[in-house]
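Workshop exercise sheet. Pairs work together: one partner reads the sequence aloud, the other fills in the structure field after running the prediction. Swap roles for the next sheet.
Pair: D.N. / O.F.
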Amino acid sequence: MVSLTNERRLIFKVIVAGPGGVGKTSLVNRFENGRFIPARMTIGVDFVAKELVVGGQPVTLSIWDFSGEQRFLNLFPDYVRGASGALVCFETSLQRDITSLQLLIPWIEIIREQNGDIPILLVGTKIDCVDEEKLQEIQEIATPILKEFELKGLFFTSSLDGRGVSEVFYKISEFMLEYTAKHENFYR
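Structure field:
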């Protein structure tokens, strides 16, 4: 969903998705409030709005934090419809091999089915729990998934200490602005 207000402020619907317990809500809370807030389990979907300026363009992110519980996955297609971009999250300390990252594929497929080729970022959370060597390993493991689903990149974050949190939201905003410019007729 992209809409234009009187101020020429773009409003982007951003989906935050992935398995339960990986830190999606903590990521959103850190971005919204600038501090770590111990998260509770999300039931269904929660959302927040955050205003920012990206490349001189005022934007509002309508951030939809979707529960990762398997029982809610059948509701996911209805909630992601109309999204402008997505962050698909996984916990870095739990990644052992390609099999564990493949658990993200159903989330990615649903986002693609509902919204076409919108920008999607793969986001590894809880980097405060792993070392640089592990992050390099994850990057190698994730490359085939990034290519297969034409994801815009892999980013690492820590909601505990704030590393990478703002950057990932600004980066998805940049990609959504580029996407909007390419598909300008679609939004008019």
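Discussion prompt: The helical segments are 24-33, 76-80, 98-101, 105-115, 132-148, 165-182. What would you look at next?
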